[in-house]
Amino acid sequence: MKKYLYFRSGDSGTGSAVADVDATTEDLCIDADRLIAMETTGDSTLKLHFEPVIRNQSDAQDGNVVNSDSVILNVAANSQFEVMKAITSAVKTSRVSMVTIADDIVDDATTGSVARYIHGSITSCGAIAVAAALS
Predict the structure, then answer these.
(1) Domain map of the chain by residue range?
(2) What are 87-108's pLDDT values in tens digits?
(3) How many angstroms separate the CA atoms of 5 and 90, rounded?
(4) How distant, in Å, are the alpha carbons of 2, 12, 17, 41, 108 from that of 32?
C-alpha cells in the first residue's frame, strides 16, 4: 500500500484552528517514498528532507544543484533517534495510507480534536518548505 506522510504546522499566526490554515507552507501531504533523509539540526530539532515536489535543476552555473523540500519537527531534547524510529516504523507498519506525523492544529470547539504527533517527543511542527522551481 502506498503511504503518505502528513504534516500541519500551527504557524498561521492567527490561532490554532483548522480555519487558520491558509498558506501553502502550513501543511503538506507527501509520498513517503520521497523521504530521503532525517537530520538532527539542534538539541531539539529534527529536519526531514524530501525529494522535491517540483523537480527542477539549476543551470550549470549553479553546479546543477537539485532543489529539495523539508519539514522541521521540534522535539524534546535529544529525542531525535526515537522520533526517527517512530516515523520509519509507521511507514513500514501502518494500516492506513495517510500517516499523520505532526498536526499542530487544535479544533476542540468543532471536532474535539487535539494536536497529534506520531511520537510523544514531538512538541510541534516547525517550518514546512516546498522549494520553488529553480531558474
Answers:
(1) 4-129
(2) 999 999 999 999 999 999 876 6
(3) 10
(4) 8, 25, 26, 21, 29
Enter the DSSP assignment of 33.
G
Are 50 and 67 contacting, i.e. CB atoms less than 8 angstroms apart? no
* pTM score, whole prediction: 0.80
All cell numbers assigned to 17: 484552528
Coil vs helix vs strand at 116: strand
80 membership: H or E segment, kind and range: helix 80-93
Burial of 28 (0-12, 13-18, 19+ CB in 10 A): buried
Residue type, 29: C
Residue 124: burial class (beta carbons within 10 Å; 0-12, 13-18, 19+): middle
